[in-house]
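name: query_chain
kind: protein
chains: 1
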Amino acid sequence: MDALQTYEQEKSKMMRPIPGQSMTNDPANPDPYEQAPKFTNFHEASEYMWDSLTEEAEYVKYMTAVSKGIPVMSIVQVILFNEFQQGTFNPDLMMMMIEPTAFMIIALAERLDLDIQITLDDDEDEDEELFGVKVEEEKLEKLRNSIEGGVPSGALTPQMENELNALPDITSLLSPQKPAEPVAVEEEVAEEPAPQQQPSLMAPPEGQA
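structure:
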């Protein structure tokens, strides 16, 4: 399954609960997001997100998505919603993590010289909607400007910047693999034996001149 299919699959899961659905859940077995979140501190949550994004398998997966033209904000939405479902953040902290997570992905993609798209249509001067809430155009423009001018100072901590520079170059893993070219095999054509000449009926018997 490629990155685009993965994104569409994850996006399809992001259905809002039916009103009153939580009242029907078993209180003895609450879902992760119905319990106390793992993180309530913004800085701790940011460090967690950075560690998650730079884990090798996740790093390759999300950079592959960027290289295939999937918008950064779409990737952010899938990541944060999954983390919310797993009980990592509460809704308020999830919304606060939108911008820093976007800058992290941009910084990772810039290091690999990938073409970056912020929203589905970066040419339109419209607000982007995430989790049913509009993201102001001013914030989106800030993200777009970081593509040419670089991620603004302070978006990444000094430790994150050091780890960014130490990350391996995975460009070769993002390039489509070329099918192996068939090896030309020269088949040796066996020479057919020359047909034996039948003796003439008029020829004298062997041994006679």
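note: Confidence is low (pLDDT under 50) at residues 185-189.
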